[in-house]
Specification:
globular; 8 helices; alpha/beta; 3-stranded antiparallel β-sheet; 2 domains; Rossmann fold; 6-stranded mixed β-sheet; about 240 residues; 9 strands; single chain
Length: about 240
């Protein structure tokens, strides 16, 4: 038997993304390795969401390359993503997870047990029969995480998953992120919340104007930022 292909590390090699004449990501050179969560932070419009989508393989680089485990193709991908505002299927919570399991090719005979496991994992074990679109915003985000985890990803991308949630719902999502990371899944997450970055990050990627200004272990970044831009950002200064 052949060992499963890994999507890690994810390497961006002078990768740029442009939309017309606008450069969104500018010659990104960055390697994201296995381990604790990598948090992407920076001002609005710094390119965090675009970098997430590029790493996920949803968009192509205009210049440069992205490699997943040394490969430059999506073949054998073990990646999943949760958006800031996930779309719920017009089905029950359980059926939303079942759809994700079916897309992964899991036998129907195994669905019921796996659905129950995943819903329990995200704290929705008693809401499987509830229409997904009638769940609260926080519950929908946790259901989106269950759908993503149904793919058994090696890498999970999260694009500001708590941006519109209240503190209790934010904590519930953060608890799932911690547990998922502890299980060995690599988390790559964009956030605008510095407190959240402090709580979750193993390392920080700080972006400004589509460029990586700093990439460092979280403790080092927050205690001793290496660039004036990072220091100003942490003080709450306007960084543009």
């Amino acid at each position: 038997m052949h060992a499963a292909m890994s999507d890690l590390p994810i390497s961006f090699d002078e990768a740029s993304v442009r939309a017309g004449t606008v450069t969104i990501l500018d010659r990104i050179s960055l390697t994201i390795s296995p381990g604790a969560p990598t948090l992407l932070i920076g001002p609005n419009g710094s390119g965090k969401s675009t970098l997430i989508r590029l790493g996920m393989g949803l968009i192509d680089a205009s210049d440069g390359r992205v490699h997943w485990g040394g490969r430059s193709t999506d073949e054998g991908t073990r990646r999943a993503m949760v958006f800031q505002r996930p779309v719920m299927l017009r089905r029950t919570a359980a059926e939303n997870v079942a759809y994700a399991l079916a897309s992964r090719g899991l036998a129907r005979t195994e669905h019921a047990e796996r659905i129950a496991q995943l819903l329990k994992r995200v704290g929705l074990g008693n809401l499987g029969d509830r229409p997904a679109r009638r769940l609260s915003g926080g519950e929908q985000q946790r259901l989106a995480l269950a759908r993503a985890l149904a793919r058994e990803p090696e890498v999970l991308f999260l694009d500001e998953p708590t941006a519109s949630l209240d503190p209790a719902s934010t904590k519930a999502v953060e608890d799932i992120v911690r547990a998922t990371a502890a299980s060995g899944v690599k988390i790559i997450m964009a956030t605008h919340d510095l407190g959240q970055a402090r709580r979750l990050a193993g390392d920080i990627v700080f972006l400004v104007r589509g460029r990586v200004i700093e990439h460092a272990p979280a403790e080092q970044f927050f205690s001793n930022p290496a660039t004036p831009e990072a220091g100003g950002f942490l003080r709450g200064d306007l960084v543009i």
